[in-house]
Design goal:
The protein is α/β, with parallel strands linked by helices. The protein has helices at 17-24, 41-50, 65-70, 72-93, 130-149, 171-180; strands spanning 9-12, 55-58, 98-104, 153-158. The protein has a single domain (9-163), classed as NAD(P)-binding Rossmann-like Domain (Rossmann fold, 3-Layer(aba) Sandwich), CATH 3.40.50. Helices cover 39% and strands 11% of the residues. The protein has a four-stranded parallel beta sheet, with helices on one face. Residues 28-183 form the NAD(P)-binding domain.
């Protein structure tokens, strides 16, 4: 079977940190920025039809874990409903050949040294904050649409993405700034928690 090469990709979250790279890199001359809400089904369907979109890379999300405790509804709305709106557009239009969903390792929750891990992709999801719950819910929708409607889906679970123009309250820039000032680097949870790479 031949590998499919997408012609036109809808990249959600182009106004965010990861999408910023596309907007500012001149090696993507065909990139067109459209400001909108992924929860707007009409806008998403319009873009898919008028721009002949055949692949979606879904980066858009509310990602500030600490903020999720104070406003969890926004995280549910953007991360779950927004994802479902995109998936529904895939189903309705019938044009999308692939859907790549960018999630987070936060869906695993805290991992301890004596945890039985096995296959990482099959590890149990144990989200421990409103952000990770919303991302896990979005993952379940992606998996369900893949199985129910035959949509080719991929989910990635990234950890602490880093780069220029990142919010200073994110882990890596925060630790760099604190270390430069000689301040204590805060660790959440207990010292037995770790991420398995």
């Amino acid at each position: 079977m031949a590998t499919y090469k997408p012609r036109n990709i809808l990249i959600t979250g182009a106004a965010g940190f990861i999408g910023y790279i596309l907007r500012t890199d001149s090696s993507y001359p065909n990139f067109k920025f459209v400001e909108g809400d992924i929860g707007s089904v009409d806008l998403v369907n319009y873009l898919i039809f008028t721009k002949s979109i055949d692949m979606i890379m879904h980066f858009a999300a509310q990602t500030h874990v600490d903020n999720s405790f104070g406003n969890s509804f926004e995280f549910t709305k953007n991360n779950i409903y927004g994802t479902q709106a995109l998936l529904e557009a895939c189903k309705v239009t019938g044009q999308i050949r692939g859907f790549i969903h960018v999630s987070t390792d936060e869906v695993y929750g805290e991992t301890y040294e004596d945890a039985v891990v096995g296959s990482y992709e099959a590890s149990q999801l144990l989200p421990s904050n409103p952000y990770s719950v919303a991302k896990a819910g979005a993952e379940m929708l992606v998996m369900a649409y893949g199985r129910s409607y035959g949509l080719s889906v991929i989910t990635t679970r990234r950890n602490n993405v880093y780069g220029r123009n990142q919010f200073p309250d994110k882990l890596i820039p925060k630790f760099i700034l604190l270390a430069m000032r000689g301040k204590v680097l805060p660790i959440h949870g207990d010292v037995l928690c770790f991420r398995i790479k």
